[in-house]
Design goal:
Length: 120
């Protein structure tokens, strides 16, 4: 799960940076505010890469997805991009857990085969 989720978060890191560049063009937003918010969100993406498997990591990822969609208020394209990345996040969590379960199952089977060979 960690690899899939981290890949999604790195993609979001870049999307947030590009959205910050677009938001800078809005005369109603100060450059400081845009880069403070974008920078915090980008930092959160990087930190979440290491926290995904810890308690609350996936929930924080979902909060980031909601914030990404909500950023469409300032950069309308982010409604679409946020929805795309929310779908990717769901897929990363869902299929990542399945991969982790399969790895654990295969490791347990290999262990039992190894233990059976040692007993013989």
């Amino acid at each position: 799960m960690r690899t899939l989720c981290a890949s999604t978060l790195i993609g979001e890191f870049f999307i947030i940076g590009f959205a910050g560049l677009v938001a800078m063009k809005d005369p109603d937003l100060s450059m400081t505010t845009v880069w403070l918010v974008s920078g915090i969100a980008m930092l959160l993406c990087l930190l979440l890469c290491g926290m995904v498997t810890r308690p609350g990591g996936v929930a924080l990822g979902w909060a980031l997805q909601i914030a990404l969609i909500a950023s469409g208020v300032f950069v309308p394209t982010m409604y679409f991009m946020g929805a795309v990345f929310a779908a990717l996040w769901w897929a990363s969590v869902h299929f990542g857990r399945k991969v982790d379960e399969a790895k654990a199952r295969f490791a347990a089977e290999a262990e039992s085969v190894s233990a059976g060979a040692d007993a013989a």
